[in-house]
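sorry for the late reply, my laptop died twice this morning and i had to redo everyting from scratch. anyway the thing you sent over, i finally got around to it. pasting the sequence first so we're on the same page, its 161 residues, then the predicted structure underneath. double check i copied it right bc i was rushing
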Amino acid sequence: MIGKLTLLFVFLAALSMVNAFPYHHFTKRAAKFGQCPPPFQPPPITAVISDVSISPDPPKAGSELKVTGSATTNVDITKDDFFGFVILDITSPATPVPVFAGKPVDICKKTTCPTKTFNFNEVYDLSSLKSLPATYIVGVAIGPITNDTSLVLACGEATFP
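ok and here's the structure:
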């Protein structure tokens, strides 16, 4: 009888330890890219870039970040359009602050233009960042280099954490 109680005690102790183990540290958070907010035009004017994966996920300051995926626009991508990548600090949501902006990628140097699709595979060096804000956005976009958001052909963003 004492042997059975000892075995039951050991089993319950082991079960308690397994339940207390922090599994959430080992689960991969898959970034979900979705529609960009205003001032970007809503679909179908601006297509949503949702087929994006990043590695590491979430991004880590001081390391490289690999951004891969594909985008399909509603209008042709031409020689004036570029692929862009940015990290924005949204700790103060009223005014997003750029923390990092990748060098714009000339799409027509990587594929034949005009086209409506673009597959991207870019690596960005985040070694200049000592840390990332508490809350931030990773954004990708296709369009001309301009401050006029109405000209953006496709856009996608994911919020962290």
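The chain has one domain: 29-160.
thats about all i looked at so far, will dig more tmrw
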